[in-house]
Structure formats: C-alpha cells, structure tokens
C-alpha cells in the first residue's frame, strides 16, 4: 500500500522552482575572489606537525625551503618557486616588517651571521609557519631566537 501526501509533492516542486530561480537570477550577482596570500598561509598550516628532514620536500619530511616550495605549489597559487632558501630570497619584492601580509616569505640567518639560511611563510599576527629542526610549527617572530636572526621578507604573491 502506497501513501502519498499532496503537500510533499508541492514542497518538492517549490524547492525545485526556487533552486532554478536562484540559479537563473542569482548567478550574475555572485562573485568570489581568492586571497592567494591567505591561501598560501592556510595551506602551510595544514602541514603543522610534519617532521623535519634535511633535503625533505614532502609531508613525510621537510626542510625549510622544501616546505615553502611545497606549500606554494599546493596552494591555489600553484606557484613554482626555487628549491633553495637563497634562490627564494632572490625572488619577489622586499617587504618591511610592518607591511607583512599572509603568504609573504620571511627569511632568517640561522647559521652564518647575515647569510640567509631559513625561510618560512608568514601567517599573520606576527607568526610564521615553517619547517624548523623540530618539524613544521607555527612560531612567534618575536621569540628572541628568531627576532635576532631576522634578515627580511619577500612578497611573491601580489
């Protein structure tokens, strides 16, 4: 025995008609823009907890520049950047600390004083996401270790 309710049939018809109307009349007003810097920073954050590996370029293990290269490629930017920290430092436009935006690359001298040797992705609020010797972490740039070793920043995403 089949029972059908007339109300449900009309509800379904109304639902379909409203979806058609929303599609026909609503599409011209909809617009979306992607902030590629935010996307790069968000992509980088997805890999927090990945281990450090010298020469590493995958979530199984990253070094600093392998991580930034991977995150940029995986983000909506699908951007290819150089493999090494020094190569990445040669790209983009220099950015002053007070003008940092999400997705900017931040550079540090963790070895020889004054020589760039570490890179990470600025995530906002004075923090970066980077593949440190303890794995991929979110780090406060104001921590004394990092503050003393800061070299500069570059914007590759406009």
Summarize the structure in words:
The protein is α+β, with helices and mostly antiparallel strands and 158 residues long. The protein has a single domain (36-155), classed as endopeptidase fold (from Nostoc punctiforme), CATH 3.90.1720. It contains five helices and eight strands. A hairpin with a 2-residue loop joins β1 (57-58) and β2. α2 (36-45) packs across α3 (64-74). The protein is globular.
Q: What features would you highlight for this structure?
A:
two-stranded antiparallel sheet; alpha+beta; endopeptidase fold (from Nostoc punctiforme); 6-stranded antiparallel sheet; 5 helices; 158 residues; 8 strands; single chain
State the strand order across the main sheet.
Answer: 3-8-4-5-6-7
The biggest beta sheet reads: 6 strands, antiparallel
Radius of gyration computed on alpha carbons = 23 Å
SS-derived structural category: alpha+beta
CATH C-level class: Alpha Beta
SSE order, one letter for each helix or strand: HHEEHHEEEEEHE
The dominant shape is: globular
Number of helices: 5
List the uncertain runs: none
The CATH architecture can be given as: Alpha-Beta Complex
Q: CATH topology, what is it called?
A: endopeptidase fold (from Nostoc punctiforme)
Let me know the average pLDDT. Answer: 87
**Number of structural units classed as domains:** 1
What fraction of residues sit in β-strands? 15-25%
Proportion of residues in helical segments = 25-40%
End-to-end distance, in Å?
Answer: 65 Å
CATH superfamily: endopeptidase domain like (from Nostoc punctiforme)
Question: How many E-type strands?
Answer: 8
